[in-house]
Amino acid sequence: MREYRIALVLALAAGCVAPVQARTAIEEARDDAGPRAALTAPAAPRASDHLECVPFARSTSGIQIYGDAHTWWGQAKERYATGQAPRVGAVMAIRPFNNSRLGHVATVSRIIDSRTILLSHANWSSPGQIERNVTALDVSPANDWSQVRIWYAPSGGLGTTHWPVEGFIYNARPGAAPQALPLPGSRAEKAPAKSMRSAKARGAERPGRRSDPIGAIIAGRY
Predict the structure, then answer these.
(1) More exposed terminus of the chain, fewer Cβ within 10 Å: N or C?
(2) Which segment of the chain is annotated as a signal peptide (predicted)?
(3) Tens digit of pLDDT for each residue in 184-212?
């Protein structure tokens, strides 16, 4: 009898020392869910999340052209005004060149000077990336915007490639005078017509080529 009591006491003592094995339903559910239950895992990118240059240019310019970028210039001929001078809100159409087999389109967001503009575009520096107000520099020998260098984020400056430009597509009817329209959400404003006429008149009074210090610098370096 004494031995039975000793065995019972030892069993009770062991039960007090041993860890409790019972688990709540919440604990079991948490373990079954794994580490993703506490944090929301990022969604895998879908094809629709990869933003190409074409839909971005369409949304920022209002120019309703569809299809690959290299087809925009041809499609615009019968539907929109086109030209070789940049205007705010116009789309710059770049021909296929080097590793760009489908061409590229970008919206002009600001005019800096006769050879420098800012662009807003997508899918240039990296796949699907949106870039706003990045520099594009006219490096054409004739100062006609037929070749440009464009800001390339990985290098932290202008890319070295001279990209061939078809021209600019304006959000206006064919033959209509293009206007510099502010982009959605931008502060760009159209210059008063009087000021533009005065500038043209002053330019007509001066003989010879218009002064272009930026062009002179570029001509000497690029």
Answers:
(1) N
(2) 1-22
(3) 444 444 443 333 344 444 444 444 444 55
Is residue 201 in a domain? no
- Strand 104-113, strand 91-94: pairing: antiparallel
Domain that holds residue 160: 48-186+209-221
Q: How many domains does the chain have?
A: 1
Total-model pTM? 0.61
